[in-house]
Amino acid sequence: MDYDLVEESNLQRQIIHSEETLGKPKSESAKEAIKKLNSICNVITHNVRIDSTNAMQIIKDYDIVLDCTDNPATRYLLNDTCVLLNRPLVSGSALRLEGQLTVYNWKGGPCYRCIFPKPPPAHTVTACGEGGVLGAGKY
């Protein structure tokens, strides 16, 4: 799921995309890359921005949700929707030289909001597109 188009600045940190897919919807670019790796994969794309009007409808059809967002508002929305639907949320994030991978809401375990009850003030958050992601990459 993504509503955005592949841009050159995405290539160093979103390695599922390539120069050949610049300008394409990210969801379609990712689908093409996955199908090239394994043609029997069933890839369903959602070329939309997730928000409070469509989150429940989209997420209800899946057993697990992978959060690769770069903003707190969407992360909290995914968390809250997964809690309501009793779905685990796998959250991956990276900024500069640091990264984390966490599973929330797994078999009664804590959710994202349990650990971070209040979203941070917007002016204190740096998105990966602004702060950058450095580390292992495709060379």
**What is the strand arrangement across the widest sheet?**
1-2-3
Task: Tell me the number of strands.
Answer: 3
User: Uncertain segments of ≥5 residues (pLDDT<50)?
Assistant: none
H/E topology pattern:
HHEHEEHH
Radius of gyration equals 16 Å
N- to C-terminal distance: 26 Å
Notes on the structure:
The chain has 139 residues and is of the alpha+beta class. The chain folds into two domains: 1-49, no CATH class; 61-139, no CATH class. It is built from five helices and three strands; from the N terminus they run H-H-E-H-E-E-H-H. It has a three-stranded mixed β-sheet with strand order 1-2-3, with helices on one face. Strand 1 (65-67), helix 3 (72-85) and strand 2 (89-95) form a beta-alpha-beta unit. It starts with 25 loop residues before the first helix and ends in an 8-residue tail after the last helix.
What's the gist of this structure?
The chain is an alpha+beta fold and 139 residues long. The protein is built from five helices and three strands. The protein folds into two domains: 1-49, no CATH class; 61-139, no CATH class.
Short key terms for the protein model shown above:
139 residues, 2 domains, 28% helix, 12% strand
Set down the secondary structure blueprint:
Blueprint: H1 26-37, H2 55-59, E1 65-67, H3 72-85, E2 89-95, E3 98-104, H4 112-115, H5 128-131
Parallel strand pairs: 1-2
Antiparallel strand pairs: 2-3
